[in-house]
Write a structure and sequence with these properties.
220 residues, globular
């Protein structure tokens, strides 16, 4: 019964997948072909990570470390306790005193290394510090870390994940997809003037309303 309920919830969310995908596609199509220097650094970071994983190695240990760390942070945010923490290149695990959808799924859509990078850039840009992380370095590493998160998350989802089984595979996959697209859209909105994050959200909302309205009329 619980499995059927989770599947039903996932089916209800499917129109949102269509809406968020179309909204992203529309904004992505507005992006200019001629890129600025900063945008080139960002795209260079993405390309660099893809080449690293394709030609050199897959940084599985670092992804697992970040993944399990986000589980810990999410647990603390939900006022839970962490009783064990294990990380290796073969996998990892965290035992907590409580569990919910946010704790289970947050590692799949929170790019922890990109967030830590942003914090490091903010601190290093302080006038009292050395400013060791320049804007160009930051943009390049932002592209690299975001690509690392997206590519490794996709790679991880190829195998059966206990977190997704607990939350329901269909519902979890839909939420992870939408949240990652929102994160990517937010970053693109900051770096590319031709990509409007606000328009992305507005299009997602109105497309969703239209699709649900059509479905409701067909059913009733």
């Amino acid at each position: 019964m619980r499995k059927a309920f989770k599947t039903a919830v996932g089916m209800i969310f499917l129109p949102l997948v269509i809406s968020v995908s179309l909204a992203f596609y529309r904004q992505f199509g507005n992006m200019e072909i001629v890129f600025t220097e900063g945008q080139k650094y960002f795209l260079g970071g993405i390309a660099t990570y893809c080449l690293i994983q394709l030609l050199l190695f897959k940084p599985a240990y670092f992804y697992t470390l970040g993944h399990e760390t986000v589980h810990v942070l999410a647990t603390w945010l939900c006022l839970g306790r962490v009783t064990s923490f294990r990380v290796s290149s073969a996998g990892g695990s965290v035992s907590t005193s409580k569990s919910n959808l946010f704790i289970l799924l947050s590692p799949y859509f929170v790019p922890i290394y990109s967030i830590l990078l942003a914090v490091a850039y903010y601190i290093s840009s302080d006038a009292f510090l050395w400013g060791f992380l320049t804007q160009s370095h930051f943009i390049f590493l932002l592209g690299l870390t975001l690509a690392f998160h997206i590519v490794m998350t996709i790679d991880t989802l190829k195998t059966k994940q206990p977190d997704l089984v607990k939350a329901g595979y269909l519902t979890s996959s839909i939420l992870i997809y939408m949240m990652n697209l929102a994160v990517i859209s937010g970053v693109l909105g900051l770096l590319f003037k031709s990509f409007s994050f606000r328009s992305f959200l507005n299009n997602t909302y109105f497309l969703s309303v239209d699709i649900y309205r059509v479905i409701f009329k067909q059913l009733f």
